[in-house]
Amino acid sequence: MPLVTRTLFAAFLALAALLGQPAAAEPLVTAVAAVGMTVSDMERSVDFFTRVLRFEKVSDTEVWGGDYERLQGVFGLRMRVVRLQLGDELLELTEYLAPRGRPLPVDSRSNDFWFQHVAIIVSDMDRAYAHLRQHKVEHASTGPQRLPDWNPNAGGISAFYFKDPDGHPLEVLHFPPGKGDPKWHQPSDRLFLGIDHTAIVISDTEASLRFYRDLLGLRQVGASENYGIEQERLNNVFGARLRITALRAGSGPGIEFLEYLAPTTGRPLPLDQQANDLAHWQTTLVSSGLAPDDARLRDPAVRWVSPGPVELPGPELGFAKGILIRDPDGHALRLIESMPD
Question: Which fold has domain 116-262?
Answer without folding.
Answer: 2,3-Dihydroxybiphenyl 1,2-Dioxygenase; domain 1 (3.10.180)
